[in-house]
Specification:
46% of the residues lie in helices and 15% in strands. By secondary structure, the protein is α/β, with parallel strands linked by helices. It has a 7-stranded parallel sheet with strand order 3-2-1-4-5-6-7, sandwiched between helices.
Length: 252
């Protein structure tokens, strides 16, 4: 009988109230992790944590605005005071806004970069001291295929996800000697609430599917399994890497 893949580990996941983050939280808990779910949607996040607990897992919900450094300090301390340590951080929270360069206001740019890029920076900065105490850890940053290639629909989102990609590599090489790994995941078209914003109707979804080689939208579970691998000791020799989960979109 195999041990759960995250047995004995503590994971903090942002944007965990629904969609991809909730899928990651459920899967991590099933694989033995104690899970801290962080979000600004308190009612939904608390419900997911309660669901995990009812299924026999260990879960804690904390309120976290990822752009707020004080919120990060409080979330990390809540996790450590409840579960004793932090082994895994999944910087999953993100937002998307449509707009070509000339259509993007400075306020919209700051909003998207604030959540998607600054949030990853603040989370990484807050988690590393506790990972040092734990003897190492795994940081998983959710980027996008929009962080690998240009976007026809959103300048700010693509810029933010490109920032996440390179920031992840800098983190990886700066802290590898301390046993702290950092990797990025690059989802393609995924069927989530954010996906409904990007592809709001049947025609746009068909076009997104047509760009993939596998000819379907991805699921939140597809991304969660990628995050599970990077969180586990199975990926102990993997850092600074880009895990592209896009149905073959960027291979063409």
């Amino acid at each position: 009988m195999r041990l759960p893949r995250l047995n004995g580990k503590v994971a903090l996941i942002t944007g965990a109230a629904r969609g991809q983050g909730a899928a990651e939280a459920r899967l991590f808990a099933q694989e033995g992790a104690k899970v801290v779910l962080a979000d600004v949607s308190d009612q939904e996040g608390s419900a997911v944590a309660a669901e995990i607990a009812e299924a026999g897992g260990d879960a804690l919900y904390v309120h976290l605005d990822v752009t707020n450094e004080g919120d990060w300090d409080r979330a990390i301390q809540s996790a450590v005071s409840t579960f004793g340590k932090i082994d895994i951080l999944v910087n999953n929270a993100g937002i998307w806004r449509r707009g070509h360069v000339l259509e993007t206001s400075s306020e919209q740019w700051d909003l998207v970069l604030g959540v998607n890029a600054k949030g990853v920076f603040l989370g990484t900065k807050a988690a590393i001291p506790e990972m040092r105490k734990a003897g190492g850890g795994s940081i998983i940053n959710i980027s996008s295929t929009a962080g690998l290639v240009g976007s026809r629909t959103s300048s700010a989102y693509s810029a933010s996800k490109g920032a996440v990609r390179i920031f992840t590599k800098s983190t990886a090489i700066q802290y590898a000697a301390e046993g702290i790994r950092a990797n990025s995941i690059h989802p393609g078209p995924i069927d989530t609430d954010m996906g409904d914003q990007v592809w709001p109707d049947a025609d746009s979804r068909e076009r997104a599917v047509a760009r993939t080689a596998i000819a379907r939208m991805g699921t939140a579970q597809d991304i969660a399994y990628g995050a599970l691998y990077l969180a586990s000791d199975e990926s102990s020799f993997v850092t600074g890497a880009e895990l592209v989960i896009d149905g073959g979109l960027t291979a063409q």
